[in-house]
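Dear support,

Our group has been running a series of protein-ligand predictions, and this particular one with adenine is the one our PI (initials K.S.) wants archived with full inputs and outputs. We had some confusion internally about which version of the output was final, so please treat the block below as the authoritative record. The input we submitted was:
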Amino acid sequence: MVSHDDDNNTHVVEEVMVAEAEKRLVLTIVIFIAMQTEALPLVTKFQLSQGPDLVFPKEVPWIRYHGIYKDLRINIICPGKDRVLGVDSVGTVSASLVTYASIQALQPDLIINAGTAGGFKARGACIGDVFLASDVAFHHRRNPIPVCDRNGICAKKTFPTPNLLKELKLKVGKLSTGDSLDMSPHDEAAIIANDATVKDMEGAAIAYVADLLSVPAIFVKAVTDIADGDKPTAEEFLQNLVAATAALDQAVTRVVDFISGKCISEL
Ligand code: ADE
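Confirmed final output from the archive:
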């Protein structure tokens, strides 16, 4: 029989192990980026090269760009193109699968999810803003049964990075994730209930997997469209994609430069 003492000891040992891990230098980073267009400028900036390697099963379209930048082993991972339709495999299903496989294969010290997002002007978001998410939650998973409702929303605080925030002066807001670019009335109510400033299609899924496997994760999101504005989302997204990607890539470079030479506990 497992006693309370055994449980307590296990918790103490786990806490000591986490504290020790946080004192180690960050050496390996996984940067998950859903759209290849958003990833390619960073691939060039960090002088990364693409496989061939045996990190992922040969059947999947997932792409790993990797290399050494400063003292960091950087891996930019994209879910790749849908084999039939030729478009990026955005959304929570591929994000969680790829994150799981990347953690298993690469054992990163930190995950950065970088991407674009819809922003809420009522909460101060403007086109081109770059946010660091303080919290993540889902807005498309509904189950009204008590407790299951909270399990569906799966709200989490992200890994705290007070020094990085102070240095980089990024905007901070809560991120809400669903599998749609546009927003149904139900989505809108759920996003408001999640108190979110930005919405995306991957963040909470990546946070779920990172949390399961105890890997710190942070979320950098650039606003391409105003979710509570008048313009059709898809049109506004495409119109601003290039400019927002440039802002995103600049912010991610600053984040990576800040991380270089530091341990997790210094972020
Ligand atoms: N990525 C960019 N804009 C988005 C939006 N409005 N919703 C979800 N993901 C996005």
